[in-house]
Amino acid sequence: FSSKFCFSALFTVEAPQSLCIVERGNNVTMECTFPVNGKLEFKELSVSWEKKDELKQVYVLHKGEEDFESQHSDFRGRIKLLKENLNLGQSLLQITDVKLRDAGVYRCVIAYGGADYKTIHLKVKAPYRIINQGVVSTGYNEWKLTCQSEGYPKAEVIWQNRNYEDLTDKANTRFETASDQLYRVTSTLTIKSGIYEIFYCIFWNKELQENTTAILHIAGNTSKFHLW
């Protein structure tokens, strides 16, 4: 409904936090504030939250009445405005079970006498927490080591031996698209090695500055392979 209002310099909406980072599957609350000046006249208040970069309507309160007709299907059943905070001049939008597709720029528009808006950038991450690993003998003192994990954004896989020497250029890493825009990253290293050695595969998520490490053990008579 933002196009219906003339924005005024006298009425100012603020966003205490212009960047929110949340992990996929968790809940997030985004906030914008506005001046109330005394008791809130609920029927004079209009609030709109929209996903600005994709023009998707997230939530509408028009003259004190909630309107879910225009809400985009991406957000159905996952959106709540904490109305008890409106009296304090706080528009708190809660998104539950956050999806990767929820990431983007949101615009909070408030009309109450005057009108104004602020934007909030929502980033969604999915760390590569669980690394499935495989160790298979392919010949005398030759081994195929495999690490596989799912996450977002795309991660680099680094291989090292017990002396932390970099073996990454000897590995083959492939990327597939899994559910909900996740990346499934599978990295394989074929190496000549004696038994009782250890190797490290490290999933390095450069954008988030996060890494997760798995330790692969080469045992005397064990071949194991546990992937999805």
Topology:
Blueprint: E1 19-23, E2 28-33, E3 46-51, E4 56-62, E5 65-66, E6 79-81, E7 90-95, E8 104-112, E9 114-125, E10 132-139, E11 142-151, E12 156-161, E13 171-177, E14 183-192, E15 197-205, E16 210-218, E17 224-225
Parallel strand pairs: 1-9
Antiparallel strand pairs: 2-7, 3-4, 3-8, 4-5, 6-7, 8-9, 10-11, 10-17, 11-14, 12-15, 13-14, 15-16
Please tag this protein with its features:
228 residues, mainly beta, Immunoglobulin-like, 6-stranded mixed sheet, elongated
Describe what you observe in this structure.
The protein is mainly beta and 228 residues long. The protein has two domains: 2-125, Immunoglobulin-like, CATH 2.60.40; 132-225, Immunoglobulins (Immunoglobulin-like, Sandwich). Helices cover 0% and strands 51% of the residues. The protein is built from no helices and 17 strands. The protein has strands at residues 19-23, 28-33, 46-51, 56-62, 65-66, 79-81, 90-95, 104-112, 114-125, 132-139, 142-151, 156-161, 171-177, 183-192, 197-205, 210-218, 224-225. The strands form four sheets. A six-stranded mixed sheet has the order 1-9-8-3-4-5, with no helix packed on it. Strands 13-14-11-10-17 form a five-stranded antiparallel sheet, with no helix packed on it. Strands 2-7-6 form a three-stranded antiparallel sheet, with no helix packed on it. The relative contact order is 0.17. InterPro entries: BTN3A2-like_Ig-C, Ig-like_dom, Ig-like_dom_sf, Ig-like_fold, Ig_sub, Ig_V-set, T-cell_Activation_Regulation. Residues 22-121, 127-196 form the Ig-like domain. One of its GO terms (cellular component) is external side of plasma membrane. This is Ig-like domain-containing protein.
